[in-house]
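Each letter names a residue; the fold follows as tokens. Both lines appear below:
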Amino acid sequence: MQRLLFLHFYLAVSFLLPHLERLSTIAADPLGHLRDPSSVVQGTDGSWHFYVDFIPLSQGTQDGWHAVLHHYSSPSIVGPWHFRDLALNWSSDETAFDAWGVFSPSVFFSAEERIWYLFYTGTPRNYTQFQATAQLLATSPSPDGPWTRRGLVCTPAGAPPLWQPQWNARRCDSGRALVVGGRKGFWTKGVRGESFGQEGVFFPRNASSFLPPYENWFGNPIYNASGNPGSSVDGYENCEFFSGPLKEEGGPWTHVLCQNHGPGQPHFITKDALNWTFMGTINTAPALEPTPVYAGVPGDAATVEYFIARANGGNLHIDLFHLTWE
């Protein structure tokens, strides 16, 4: 009964909708595809950093996601942005989950530990056969590296040929490291069956650090897409978390914007990032899979005034967008 009353209160509150206005292109590479950038975070010297997939045109975007991770930085959010270097390549261990590609990065700087965390999705050498991926972690004392692989965060929980019934039976993909309500966690897409995606969360066993090992939250998936609104036949994926304005009734609330394989992007609100209420679908085009620029610790305590997102225009490039509320 308490949960029903809680949801009824959510729906009774008037919420604003996020709107993204394009400002400029901040990263483009004529030799390849840039896609799926990390969120943007700030270092102790005031500089800003993000990491992004680089997929050579000769490789295409399928058959293993043969990507590496590139690093961009800027002294200011609005630029100028500069390509710094290759951040992370495939693993030299042919049996590793990231021996065939690394993509969909998430970056987090821990001021307490003085460590940069780079989470990413890895594809193994048998990806063409199974399409199974895992989430891995690398760390560095600097945003410029060198990066040290620290192990696995989330691995597929199922097995071929059906990849059922667990929510993350086939893939763990496109995760985000966040601090919500003072608690460290890693929110990520899980896929079961052919391609049915839903969001779940893993928490580190050592609550004071983002280092592995991680444990699957008992309530996963967070929002069951089976038969519920806001989900296409393939569910939803690539969710981003950012606080709404204080002027929202009872605010600030955490807004969650996901991607869909159908029309519109599912939009949720939550207080704890574990209990979501579906608020409808919105369209952020031309921003494709937008990711926040976090002023402060990524999560519900950060201020978000900008997003970056991939956009079309010949080869894919990364654009900066300003966030407003309507």
